[in-house]
Prior knowledge:
single chain; 83 residues; mainly alpha; 57% helix; 0% strand; PP-bd_ACP
Amino acid sequence: MTAPTVEQDLLRYLESRTKASWEPDRDLFTAGGLSSLFAMELVVHIEQVFDVVIAGADLRLDNFRTVHAMTALVDRLRENHAG
Length: 83
């Protein structure tokens, strides 16, 4: 799955769960799109869909502020897993 595909999946998931449209670089926390509970649901979604494990330092909020940040996280975790 390529970065644009990851981004599209995350945008679809966010839009389906929040019933709002999101830009990939919009801060989801300051915009009121994410609560701490929804952030945990998002972690589970990312782990299941993209076959990655998010733990430790990767659980920091900055990795989930924007769709771009989440896409970069998925890419980095996949690279680390492959390498």
